[in-house]
Design goal:
Blueprint: E1 11-15, H1 21-32, E2 36-40, H2 44-51, E3 58-61, H3 72-85, E4 90-96, H4 111-138, E5 142-147, H5 158-177, E6 185-190, H6 196-211, H7 214-236, H8 241-253, E7 260-263, H9 267-272, H10 278-289
Parallel strand pairs: 1-2, 1-4, 2-3, 4-5, 5-6, 6-7
Helix pairs in contact: 1-8, 4-5, 6-7
Bound molecules: NADP nicotinamide-adenine-dinucleotide phosphate.
Length: 290
């Protein structure tokens, strides 16, 4: 079936993390294509920013902080309230996008921050899913997971990628567990995307350089500086967030969506590594790090 915007009619999609970047681009694009979008944000100023766009089908949900469970139940109540006022509107999909994460050697990772990232990427989305799955089942809907392209070990980004590995596990396991109700769990695996996150990560890394114990930092300083230089070249080539939004739309309207989509700068190369045996990938990554 050719995707058409009519397939969005009377369908609502919950997109998390819509203050900026991929989430915001996706929320706007889906709303423009005719979906009703529940766009979650943490700050009232971001909710107001979305309201100011004047898109009737774009409904901010605020505050939803996936790392703070006391905000989850009220956000869900709000969504249910909106749906109850429009019995023709069905909750069709969740797009799990929200999240952050920083750059650091595992030895120096800030564990409080990591705990929040795990909540934001894994525990919070599962709380949403557990609550909303009956509605998605009723709508014959689907679940989309935004993640990095591949489960391969890349040094200094374990704070982000450990969550991506786990997202990969959850999405693939859900695909099996929910198969009898035909609720696809789709991985949209993004390569480099031009958002606020890379610059924020670079800034936070500079701050961490000042705060980490000097003797520990010195152990990694050379490699981290090299990594920084490589990252800034990578940053210059990142794809626009809109290309992700378009793929999410395709995954939502395709009659038979793919289980995985690869999109964004270098996503294809990274994904290809998954076809190799794990010991070979480990060897390649170790050689690369030397
Ligand atoms: N950019 C890339 O190259 C890239 C590549 C692969 C995968 N991804 C993934 O794509 C997703 C979006 O990233 P992005 O690049 O678009 O970054 P971004 O512009 O920084 O957007 C992240 C969004 O997540 C929200 N968020 C963070 N922690 C949250 C929490 N605890 N609860 C609720 N919302 C939270 C942020 O809200 P606030 O504004 O309130 O902080 C923001 O709306 C992330 O999961 C990221 O891992 C990005």
């Amino acid at each position: 079936m050719t995707p058409t915007s009519s397939t969005a009619h009377n369908k609502a999609v919950l997109v998390t993390g819509c203050s900026s970047g991929i989430g915001r681009a996706t929320a706007l694009y889906l709303a423009q294509q005719g979906f009703t979008v529940f766009a979650t944000v943490r700050k009232e100023s971001d909710a107001q920013n979305l309201r100011d766009l004047g898109i009737a089908t774009l409904i901010p949900v605020c505050p939803l902080d996936l790392s703070h469970k006391e905000t989850i139940a009220p956000a869900l109540d709000f969504i249910r309230g909106e749906l109850s006022q429009r019995p023709d509107l069905k909750l069709y999909a969740i797009v799990n996008n929200a999240g952050g994460g920083g750059v650091a050697p595992i030895e120096l990772m800030d564990l409080d921050r990591f705990r929040l990232d795990v909540e934001a990427r894994l525990v919070g989305p599962l709380a949403l899913l557990q609550d909303l799955l009956p509605l998605i089942r009723e709508a014959h809907g689907r679940v989309i997971w935004i993640a990095t392209p591949a489960i391969i070990p890349i040094p200094f980004v374990a704070g982000i990628h450990a969550c991506d590995f786990a997202v990969n596990c959850l999405a693939r396991t859900l695909q099996i567990e929910l198969k009898r109700w035909n609720i696809p769990n789709i991985l949209v695996r993004c390569g480099g995307v031009k958002t606020a996150a890379p610059a924020r990560g670079a800034r936070e890394l500079e701050e961490d350089f000042q705060q980490w114990p000097r003797e520990r930092f010195e152990l990694y300083a050379g490699t981290l500086r090299k990594e920084q230089a490589e990252l800034s070249q990578f940053d210059a080539r990142r794809s626009e967030p809109n290309v992700i939004a378009e793929v999410v739309y395709r995954a939502l309207v395709a009659e038979k969506p793919r289980r995985r989509y690869q999109i964004g700068y270098m996503s294809g190369v990274a994904s290809a590594l998954e076809y190799l045996p794990q010991p070979l990938v480990d060897w390649i990554m170790e050689r690369r790090a030397q």
